[in-house]
């Protein structure tokens, strides 16, 4: 079974174009204000007569709690991405290439976190760690992120694998390659778009998640979104805007890296 690729050259109506541009402007419009606020010398205004400053970025990096939260978020995101990909890849292969009783139920259960609000998932995770006396902390947050991001990783892999021709792998085996060698050298390179898409979704979601992480943090372990919320609750200055600007730059860097390594067209086709 082959999946038809998206035809990016097909013309669209003027109404769709206008609607798409309006949606894009609505989504991106707050970003310049965040950047301007992060550069402002005035705590309460976007523009200041004194000009612009980088002091809020310096204050962010000098804040020990922000740095600890950043380290936790990066570690949680990295572990979540690797583990979710390691689980999702074989699951996608089994789901696409094999038919067995309970397959649809398995896929429905894996996709269930997408249908449940993050607050409900966070409450359930908190109840679990409380009842089992595990307690909140780094590893409970990591496990919760893996469970929550697994369907986000699985979907592009299933879509990618569904569009591949299994006869190519069979041909490699007929030419003398072992099953593992045929899969590793023929199928895995073609899974690159799905792996990159799934890994990106997992990393970004784990890095940015608040609704689940807020229930599982404690005094010694917190994440960047939770720490930012605690900061703006008590202090009103552009330090969090500086943090958000850095995350915007990180997002732009991820997009550029995807374009360089894979190409956005292939990435979007798998997404």
TrEMBL record:
> Which spans are transmembrane here?
12-39, 74-96, 108-130, 136-154, 240-262
Domain ABC transmembrane type-1 positions: 70-258
In the record, biological process GO terms are:
transmembrane transport
Q: Where in the cell is it found?
A: Cell inner membrane; Cell membrane
* Keywords, alphabetical: Cell inner membrane, Cell membrane, Membrane, Transmembrane, Transmembrane helix, Transport
Q: Which GO terms describe its cellular component?
A: plasma membrane
SUPFAM superfamilies under this entry? MetI-like
Domain of life of the native organism: Bacteria
What's the protein's topology in the membrane? Multi-pass membrane protein
Please provide an example of a Pfam family that matches this protein in its UniProt record: BPD_transp_1
Family per UniProt?
A: Belongs to the binding-protein-dependent transport system permease family.
This chain belongs to the protein called: Putative spermidine/putrescine transport system permease protein
Q: Which organism is it from?
A: Bosea psychrotolerans
Lineage of the species this protein comes from: Bacteria, Pseudomonadati, Pseudomonadota, Alphaproteobacteria, Hyphomicrobiales
């Amino acid at each position: 079974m082959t999946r038809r690729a998206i035809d990016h050259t097909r013309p669209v109506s003027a109404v769709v174009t206008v609607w798409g541009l309006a949606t894009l402007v609505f989504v991106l419009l707050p970003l310049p204000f965040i950047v301007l606020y992060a550069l402002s010398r005035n705590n309460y205004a976007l523009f200041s007569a004194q000009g612009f400053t980088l002091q809020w970025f310096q204050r962010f990096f000098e804040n020990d709690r922000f740095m600890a939260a950043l380290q936790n978020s990066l570690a949680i995101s990295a572990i979540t991405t690797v583990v979710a990909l390691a689980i999702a890849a074989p699951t996608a292969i089994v789901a696409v290439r094999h038919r067995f009783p309970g397959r649809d139920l398995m896929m429905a259960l894996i996709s269930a976190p997408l249908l449940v609000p993050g607050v409900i998932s966070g409450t359930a995770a908190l109840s679990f760690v409380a009842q089992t006396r595990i307690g909140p902390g780094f590893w409970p947050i990591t496990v919760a992120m893996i469970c929550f991001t697994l369907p986000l990783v699985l979907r592009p892999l299933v879509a990618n694998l569904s569009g591949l021709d299994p006869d190519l792998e069979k041909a490699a085996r007929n030419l003398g390659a072992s099953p593992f060698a045929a899969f590793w050298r023929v199928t895995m390179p073609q899974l690159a778009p799905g792996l990159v898409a799934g890994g990106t979704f997992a990393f970004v979601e784990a890095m940015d998640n608040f609704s689940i992480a807020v229930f599982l943090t404690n005094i010694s372990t917190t994440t960047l979104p939770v720490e930012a919320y605690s900061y703006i609750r008590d202090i009103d200055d552009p330090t969090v805007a500086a943090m958000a600007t850095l995350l915007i730059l990180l997002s732009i860097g991820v997009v550029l890296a995807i374009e360089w390594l894979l190409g956005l067209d292939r990435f979007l086709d798998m997404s």
